[in-house]
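TICKET: design request
STATUS: open
ATTACHED STRUCTURE:
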């Protein structure tokens, strides 16, 4: 099936078979460097013109000074996995799950998503994880080609270092799949995200229904897998990511040494560094820092790691991901605008910055020539209320 896809260009999407014409007028347009009152026009799905002033031409939508932003770009979300497995070990039919996932993201203002799928499985023990990414990717790519989706979908492979089958699963993907991101994950207990073993026990036991003995066995198995496969899998995953032409991301870097390794691996952005030390080292190594919107909105990490707000105040934050709450992405931009007193800078963390990190050059900003992915937002009691979503100039929400 995948051989039917033309051209390996990541920016060339197959998620829309029509392009719309649209004019939003009398709006506060959030441009890359400033906010102006004006109008924006898309033609054939591309931003054709931006004009300053409050004039509302015939056929235009009068936004009554609502904000107009670029569509949101999401690099890391667990949402598709939540839809295909709504409860532990409950397998929901994938096509309706993907369509529901797509509709949910569109309803929150996300117009481009990199759907995270785990590669690297464990076939033994109560804490087992089975292969699913290749099959799910086939279904997602077919649905995209058929025009079932409202928004742009790309692949993000979460390479689980502490597993049995990582390299075999990665080998099943080719350049025709246009995998946008490969992130390097090491969930070995006692380090990175789960330095706190009690936090790990709470997370895994609730998610997988493990008793104390089963959890202890699960941890022992993970240690053994790390000892046997860890170094081989990390080197192999980097090699596979380069073969696929993907951006490489690190995950849960905790120390300066972790970041130094990420830099040697050619990592483009760091997902959820867990400490100030790691975030500062990312800055020193030219690696963009991505933090979770739930962390920012809740005022801290649920795992006890560094707070996104503190990194923002220290200018150590570049990109926000919705992680496990899609609606949090738009909220986080306005929270950052309060922290920085700079709306364009805050909006960039959920639009142009993630687009650049993923090497997408055709979206993420209200600029002539970019895709007509735009949002209309009204602020109500300091909260952003989404009033309209357009993908390539077509109304989708």
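STATUS: resolved
RESOLUTION: sequence designed for all positions
ATTACHED SEQUENCE:
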């Amino acid at each position: 099936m995948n051989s039917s896809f033309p051209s390996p260009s990541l920016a060339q999407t197959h998620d829309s078979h029509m392009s719309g014409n649209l004019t939003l007028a009398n709006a506060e347009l959030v441009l890359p460097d400033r906010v102006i009152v004006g109008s924006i026009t898309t033609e054939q799905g591309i931003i054709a013109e931006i004009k300053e002033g409050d004039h509302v031409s015939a056929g235009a939508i009068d936004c009554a000074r609502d904000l107009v932003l670029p569509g949101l770009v999401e690099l890391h979300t667990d949402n598709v996995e939540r839809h295909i497995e709504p409860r532990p070990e409950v397998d929901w039919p994938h096509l309706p799950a993907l369509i529901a996932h797509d509709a949910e993201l569109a309803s929150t203002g996300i117009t481009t998503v990199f759907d995270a799928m785990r590669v690297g499985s464990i076939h033994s023990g109560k804490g087992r994880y089975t292969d699913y990414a290749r099959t799910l990717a086939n279904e997602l790519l077919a649905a995209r080609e058929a025009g079932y989706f409202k928004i742009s979908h790309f692949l993000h492979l979460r390479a689980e270092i502490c597993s049995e089958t990582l390299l075999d699963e990665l080998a099943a993907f080719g350049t025709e799949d246009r995998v946008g991101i490969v992130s390097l994950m090491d969930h070995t207990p006692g380090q990175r995200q789960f330095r706190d073993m009690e936090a790990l026990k709470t997370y895994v036991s609730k998610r997988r229904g493990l008793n104390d003995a089963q959890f202890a066995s699960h941890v022992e198995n993970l240690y053994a897998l790390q000892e046997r496969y860890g170094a081989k899998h990390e080197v192999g995953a980097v090699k596979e990511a380069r073969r696929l032409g993907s951006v490489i991301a690190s995950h849960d870097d905790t120390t300066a040494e972790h970041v130094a390794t990420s830099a040697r691996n050619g990592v483009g952005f760091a997902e959820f560094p867990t400490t100030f030390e790691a975030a500062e080292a990312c800055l020193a190594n030219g690696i963009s820092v991505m933090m979770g919107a739930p962390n920012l909105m809740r005022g801290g990490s649920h795992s006890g790691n560094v707070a996104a707000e503190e990194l923002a105040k220290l200018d150590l934050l570049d990109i926000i991901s919705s992680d496990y709450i899609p609606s949090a992405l738009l909220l986080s931009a306005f929270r950052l605008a309060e922290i920085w007193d700079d709306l364009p800078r805050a909006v960039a963390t959920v639009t142009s910055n993630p687009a650049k990190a993923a090497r997408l050059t055709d979206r993420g900003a209200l600029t002539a020539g970019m895709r007509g992915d735009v949002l209309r937002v009204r602020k109500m009691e300091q909260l952003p209320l989404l009033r309209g979503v357009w993908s390539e100039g077509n109304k989708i929400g």
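CLOSING REMARK: The radius of gyration is 21 Å. Confidence is low (pLDDT under 50) at residues 1-9, 11-17.
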